Request: fold
Amino acid sequence: MVPPEVEFPIREWLLSPLNPAARDAARATAPSNSGWVAYIARDQAEGAVPESIRFVKHRERDGQHVCAVTWVDGEGTPKQGVFSVVADAAGSYSIRGSHWGGSESFPVRRPWLNAGGGGRPLYIGGRVLGTNDAARVRISLPGGAVVEDDVAEDGWALFPTTYPSLDNSVRAVAVAVLNAEGRLLNQHRLLGNSEPV
Reply:
């Protein structure tokens, strides 16, 4: 169960009014292929339908909470995302990193953790695509740290870490997708298009 103080900043952001005009202006003025970056940088929100918000998975490590969430945005589009929430020294919780997109799946040729990540400290999270046999996902970070999570029924795997932030060394890290017997189904780069290692 997700603690209410962790849910609050995520719900607050999701429920903030959608501003299509700001989104469209950001897309129009941003350099090629960076419209979403410009829109996100302006802290625009989703205008989510309140009763559609579902916290589908939660993991916590050393005070960092990582949540997989699904919702329907203010334009009726189903969305899914991962949020990292951390308390400051005064005990106030806030979002320290997030990524999201449409909830549709797409075909892949081999098992793959469709992950994103970021924040401070680093979080990683996403859904395993391309197999129903995945039971665990293991990620080895620079410096020898290993994070592992079970794969939820709907494919989610979440990784709070103590790693400071996303950098180029993390981008080259390998992800191992394992079945229930621990057999390797696939190994690929963390933030690539399922390129084999």
In short: Residues 118 and 167 are 9 Å apart (CA to CA). The chain has two domains: 1-104, 105-197. The chain is about 15% helix and 40% strand. The radius of gyration is 17 Å.
